[in-house]
Amino acid sequence: MYRSVVALAALFSTFCVAALPAPSAAQTIPKNPQIDIAYVAPRDQKYQAIYQRLKDLQVFEILQQFLSPLKLPRKIVVKSDECGALKLLRDTNGPVIICYEYVAAMEQAAPGASVVPIANGRITKEGVIVGSFVNEVLSEVALAVFDALQIPVWGNANDAGDNVAALIMSQFGDAVAWRTLIGTSWFLAQRAYVGHGTFSEVLQSSEAPRFYNYLCIAYSANPDNFSFLSADIPKERFEWCQNDYRKLVRSFKQTILPHVDMALLEQVRKVDWMTRLQMTKN
Amino acid sequence: MRMVFNVTALVVTGLLIAPGVALAQGAKPSLPQNPNIIIDYTEPVDPARMNFDPDDPKLSADDKAKLKKLQANYEAMKGVRERLMKSRLLERYRLFLSAVRFPTTFRLRTKQCDELNAFYSSTDDSLNLCYEYVLSFEQKAPNDTTPEGITREEAIVGSIVSTMLHETGHALFSMFRVPILGREEDAADQIAGFVMLQFGNDVARTTIKGAAWKWASQDWSDPAYHDVHSTPQQRFYNFLCMAYGGDPAGFQEFIDKGWLPKWRVPNCAREYQQAKLAFEKTIGPHIDWDMVKRVQATTWLQSNEVPPVAPSQPQTALPSASTPSTAPGQPAKGP
């Protein structure tokens, strides 16, 4: 367990360093002052390593920088905690809580030491953990952002959080998209088909529809890179993917983008994400 | 079958959106026609127009059987169309939508589709309700009130109304370029459920319970998780949750009877508020709110035909929280 967590932490560290600007560039990007963070020490010792690593790696501090272009009218608290369940139903206007249990589940769902070749890429244990962790954070933060900005949300709110997370992950270069979207898809595929949890675990809709949502967005955002996914998406769904994606992009522009500092976003975008992530893959 | 048709005609005529009847009773003022809505009860396809002679000796037995089947289907579709026309379904639905400021012409159409379906088409901004789908509602609805208190009237009216509202949701999303961050099919169900709750207790109870019936009466055993729609099971719970979230006291029975799992309950109020906010922000600007008050003041259900409150301790045949994955007593296959 500990070794796995260390592996997770090491990889996540690599990802975070890679995914964010080089030190000099990163220094020019301020932290979002409206995002408060906390790492809550777990009561159960088995989550201690995860807690310590997330804290040491300053994952939420990185998030504060990543979300710096977002103009929020009030504070959002993001924290990691032991939840007693995989996920918690967030109170309206309450903090975003990333549960150590869920991070542990990502690790369990990831492939073993072997590398799983897929299309022109590969799936690794670390890749799945990093990808699904980044997705989880962005998805949960999206829900808090909806509340803070009073964004009109049609459809299941959790699906909306997923969609926004997936869309963001698809906009920062091919390597980021690969790692996060494919990592998340792998995680959800394992979660969808391997057993069932407690009621707390199924607060969100079944993981299987989420799995197909991610495949659909990944493919639609970049059909060239993710053409192999067309084999995994049943035809009757596949034919809707592109249209749904276009609607999602339009909806994002209508609702979220007006609250984004475009100048700051430009700074974030100037960072060479792809090169960094390629270094990670090598 | 004959009895089914007669009962259905009564149901659709009497229960669904009946301002004309209310006006005749002097109860409410009339509503204006929405000038941007066109209605059309499209004729089903008459197999006679294919110019085959069923008595032609050159026809094979197989072809003759096909012709016979086509003719029987044609008669069935004609029957549905006549019942819908007699009920003035589309005329009434047009009145119901009188408060919506459509930017283009919205076409309400009933038609033969050769499939169990209803759909919105953005190519001509049309809502298409298929005769086959309506017939399936009629055929699936219980002949007698179910043990848990779902009446035949609720089942049929709720199925038709929820279907039309769902497709109208798609139309509104498309015409007003409404942002949808979740899944559009869920959003269309949300708008249907939300609207059902805005027209008084009788309309809410009849349509919500009927909509729940629609999804409970589908096959839950092999869900298509890849589909753009949520599974029938999820859609069933979503309607119940929306209703309970909007009116906890009015729909307490959903909890008492175990239809809505307890773990889902705490989020229902939030789900309702989410839909309310979304409606107000994205659809609201396109609504004539003074007209809405008139629509809300209209009697849409005739009081003498509003189903009574369900008995308190029925034997359940609808899904209960203790059986979340499969619904006992369901028909083998649904549309």
Describe the protein in words.
The complex is a heterodimer of chains A (282) and B (335). With 282 residues, chain A is mostly helical. Chain A has one domain (2-281). Chain A is 58% helix and 7% strand. In chain A, the strands form two sheets. Chain A has a three-stranded parallel sheet. Chain B has helices at residues 2-15, 19-24, 61-87, 89-96, 131-140, 152-175, 184-196, 200-216, 232-246, 252-256, 268-283, 289-297, and strands spanning 37-41, 106-111, 118-121, 126-130. In chain B, strand 3 and strand 4 (126-130) form a beta hairpin. Chain B is mostly helical and 335 residues long. At the A-B interface, helix 7, helix 9 and helix 10 of A face helix 7 and helix 11 of B.
Name a few traits of the molecule:
heterodimer, A: 282 residues, mainly alpha, three-stranded parallel beta sheet, two-stranded antiparallel ribbon, 12 helices, 5 strands, 58% helix, disordered N terminus, B: 335 residues, 2 domains, four-stranded mixed beta sheet, 4 strands, disordered C terminus
**Tally of helical runs of chain A:** 12
Beta content of chain B comes to 5-15%
What is the C-alpha radius of gyration of chain A, as a whole number of Å?
A: 18 Å
State the major sheet of chain A.
Answer: 3 strands, parallel
Round the Cα radius of gyration of chain B to an integer and report it. 20 Å
β-strand percent of chain A reads: 5-15%
User: How do the helices and strands follow one another from N- to C-terminus of chain A?
Assistant: HHEHHEEHEEHHHHHHH
Distance between the termini of chain B: 19 Å
Considering residues with a beta carbon less than 8 A from a beta carbon on another chain, report the largest interface and each chain's count: A-B, 39 and 33 residues
The averaged pLDDT of chain B comes out at 83
Main sheet: strand order of chain A: 1-2-3
Give the structural class of chain B: mainly alpha
Could you say how many structural domains of chain B there are in total? 2
Question: Total domains of chain A, how many?
Answer: 1
**Mean of pLDDT of chain A:** 82
Name the poorly predicted regions of chain A: 1-22, 194-205, 273-282
**Strand line-up of the largest beta sheet of chain B:** 1-2-4-3
